[in-house]
Structure formats: C-alpha cells, structure tokens
Specification:
By secondary structure, the chain is mainly beta. It has one domain: Porin. It has a 16-stranded antiparallel barrel with strand order 1-2-3-4-7-8-9-12-13-14-15-16-17-18-19-20. It has a two-stranded antiparallel sheet with strand order 5-6. A two-stranded antiparallel ribbon has the order 10-11. A hairpin with a 4-residue loop joins strand 16 and strand 17. Helix 3 packs parallel to helix 4. The protein is globular. The N terminus is likely disordered.
C-alpha cells in the first residue's frame, strides 16, 4: 500500500479563519469586561456568545523497525500527516436557560489514517477519514440550571457554559447532541488537545469506551448536582449501531450508554473523580470469535461475525489532579473495562494508566506559555490480545499477529503564546510497542500545532 502523505494547507485554513473573524468582529461589540485571551471580545454580560477556533496539527514519524505489517498497522515507512479542525460556536442565555450550538469541519488525516495505535497521536483526527471535511453539527445543547442556594459563585464563561455567575448549590440538566468527554473524566492537565497534549489516551481515559459516533459525539440526557465540596453527574447516551460507526442506534431498550461520575474537591486545588459506565450494544465476543476460528468455522478470527444485541461493556476510572501556587500542576488517570466484549466506541484498550505534569512559563517571564510531560501505558485483556495474535482485527488494530507487550507512550509539548488567542506548539511522542506489539517500534512522532481562538 502506498505511503499516505497529507501536506499542510495553512493558506486554506487562514482564509477560512479570516472570513469567520470578519463576520464575528462585525457582530460582537467590544467591552471592558471582555476576555483578553481570544481575538474577538466576549463580553461577560452579553446574552449572546459568538466565537470559534482553528486547530492545525502536523505530525511526522521516520522509519522504524517492523518485521511485518497488517491491514491496521501503523506504517513503518516515514510519513507526515496534517489535520485541520475548524469550529464555530453560537450560544445564547436568558435567566437560567442556555442554548449552545457548534458546527465543525474536520479535515486532513492522521498518520496511517489513525490506525495501529490504541493511544493514537492526534485527538483531532476523525477515525474514518472517508467522511471528508464537510461541516457537520457537533453539538446542540439546551441547559437548564435549578438554583438550590441563594449565594452564587463566579464562573469563567466557555462555549459550553455561558453564565459568569452560577448558584453555589444547583442542579443542571442538559439535553441534546454533545460529547460525553466534554463533561466526564475532564482533567485540567490531561484533556486539552488544542493547547496541551494530543495523544488519545493522555487526553482521555483509554479504558473509558464512552458512547459516541466516529466523530466523538452522541445524543444524550445529562444531569448534574453541584455543591461547593462535591458534584455528582450522570448521563444516558445513544450508542453507535456498529463499532466506530457514524450512525447512532435510537432504540434505548437495546442500545445505550450509561455514565456516572462522583467528583470530590477536598481542598481548593485538589480534585478527585470516580467514574463508572456501562454500554449496551450489538457487540462481538472475543471468545466466540476465537473459538469459531480454532474450530475451523471461520477462515480468520472475525469479531463482527459474532456480534449479539444486548451485550454489555462496563468499566471504571479514577482521575485526580492537583495544582500548586508555583504554577505547576500534576494529574493522573487509571482506567479499566471488561475485556470479553468488543472495543466499540473510543479505542482498543482494556486498561490504561496515565500521569502528567505541566507548568506555566511565568518563571521565564512567559506566563501564557505552558510546558508539559506525560506518560501513558495501555493494556489488553487476555482474550483481546489472543484475538489479535491469531490474526483478528478491530476497528483500530491488527498487525496480522502479535507478540504482546503494553503500549507505552511518553509525550511532551511546549505551547508558546504569540498574541491574544494565537499560539504555536511543538511536541514529541515516543511510542514503545505500538499496537501492543513487541516486534514493532519504537517510533518517535514529532508535532507542530497552530491554534487560534476567536
């Protein structure tokens, strides 16, 4: 198969950015209370929010050792790929109600079309590049806040939460199209691919196979109780009809994703999150696929041939973070899911352990800059690894065989602020045992990122 190389097209991205900026600048008035970390002003007292962002990531790896490759392998030949993510945010609020919409365009490709790694190197990449860069509705949410106390706290407005002040004790309800990872397993150090790390299993818990279509979104009902010391949130979401599919199953009696998370804030700068989830879907069984192949009923292990409606994949996670007055922050995640049923919606990992640290550039007089280092180790269940060893393929992995070892990735980045809302970043990812295969790698991935907040 020829090596796929997608070259950066910054001219197209810049032209789109300029056009969006011109339109929004004509609509949104300046204000003394506006944010200063975006190109456009965002008045905190305005009922209307208009904004956007552009994120361009170029990644490259050189040749690396590989005695063989399969249909889903990370390609051993040198390759370069560029992704472009453009987003337009529109939001409105009135009293305790908010409506938020965002439209995205995800263009370009990832290295090896985002195949061959559980911890893939670029979170912005759509896992099905054939979908193209046509704009699509990413989120459309209605939010209602019920005050349970008279006192309020300050809140930094974001495209997903517009009010500058919210009740200290409250219940929030959201309904619509959203990303489950927008609200669950969030981490201040390990969640932002636009300014921080870009690896899938650093920015999200690799063991959290959260409900989503191939672009990362779903329709859901979300509820959250918040108090000064703790929060409890839950969601019921639609699952895709097939693994990594774009079509969502609307029959909740047979397919759904259930999520719950308890967040504890024992101190001003410390957060602990406990996550649990269960996905119901038309999933394949690794043991059935293995047995059918060994018995001679299937010519090769085929998880898709052994799907059954109503199977349940469940898992749990722990997420902690701590910040210090020096500008240093530390964070860690642990994730696990049962490994008997098919990896379905996020990535092919049954266990994941990650830790990271970042620091602001205040010490070298660059307070808007940030530097970070993280390490993540992903693993497979016995059944999942045996399925791949016998030549099976998932929606991301399949080298044709497997000499198993944990996939371990070290990632670093430096983000430098250029001007309000504009930053560039460079980064490295060192991947050992890509796709859990001791016979392949290691591989070094280099990254350059341009980010603009409107």
């Amino acid at each position: 198969m020829p090596n796929r190389v997608t070259r950066p097209d910054y001219a197209v991205a810049v032209r789109r950015l300029v056009a969006i900026t011109a339109v929004l600048a004509a609509i949104v008035p300046a204000s003394a209370g506006a944010q200063t970390d975006t190109i456009l002003p965002h008045p905190v007292d305005s009922w209307l929010y208009l904004g956007g962002q552009i994120n361009v990531i170029t990644q490259h790896h050189g040749d690396f050792p590989s005695p063989y490759e399969g249909v889903n392998s990370l390609k051993a030949e040198s390759e370069t790929a560029t992704s472009q993510l453009l987003t337009l945010y529109v939001g409105a609020r009135r009293a305790s109600w908010e409506v938020v919409m965002n439209v995205e365009s995800a263009g370009g490709r990832g290295l090896s079309d985002a195949l061959g790694l559980a911890g893939f190197t670029n979170l912005d990449v759509v896992r099905n590049p054939t979908l193209g860069a046509s704009p699509y509705l990413a989120r459309l949410m209605v939010r209602k806040t019920f005050a349970l106390s008279a006192d309020s706290i300050d809140s930094d407005p974001t495209p997903f939460s517009l009010a500058p002040h919210i009740p200290a004790k409250r219940i929030e309800i959201r309904v619509g199209k959203l990303g489950v990872a927008d609200f669950f397993d969030v981490n201040g150090v390990l969640s932002d691919s636009h300014r921080q790390f870009t690896n899938w299993t650093v920015d999200n818990n690799g063991g959290f196979d959260y409900a989503a279509d191939t672009r990362g979104y779903t329709y859901a009902v979300f509820a959250e109780f918040d108090s000064p010391g703790w929060s409890l949130r839950g969601a019921e979401a639609l699952m895709p009809t097939v693994a990594n599919g774009i079509t969502l199953d609307t029959n909740l009696t047979r397919a759904r994703g259930e999520n719950v998370e308890l967040e504890l804030r024992p101190a001003a700068r410390s957060v602990i999150r406990l996550l649990g989830y269960a996905n119901h879907a038309n999933m394949g069984s690794y043991s059935e696929a293995i047995d059918a192949f060994l018995d001679g009923r299937d010519p090769h292990p085929d998880i898709e041939a052994h799907r059954e409606q109503g199977r349940v994949k469940y898992g749990a996670g722990l997420n902690v973070e701590r910040s210090f007055s020096s500008g240093v922050r530390v964070a860690a995640r642990v994730g696990w899911n049962e490994g008997a049923n098919e990896s379905f919606a996020y990535t092919e990992a049954n266990t994941s352990v990650a830790g990271g640290v970042d620091a602001s550039g205040a010490r070298w007089r660059r307070p808007a800059d940030r530097f970070g280092v993280a390490v993540v180790s992903n693993g497979l269940s016995d059944l999942h690894r045996e399925y791949l060893r016998l030549g099976g393929t998932g929606f991301l992995l399949g080298d044709g065989t497997l000499r198993y070892g944990r996939e371990t990735i070290v990632e670093s980045y430096y983000t430098g602020a250029l001007w309000r809302g504009v930053s560039v970043a460079g980064g490295l990812q060192f991947v050992t045992r890509p796709g859990y295969n001791r016979d392949r790698g290691p591989v070094l991935v280099q990254m350059f990122r341009l980010h603009v907040d409107l």
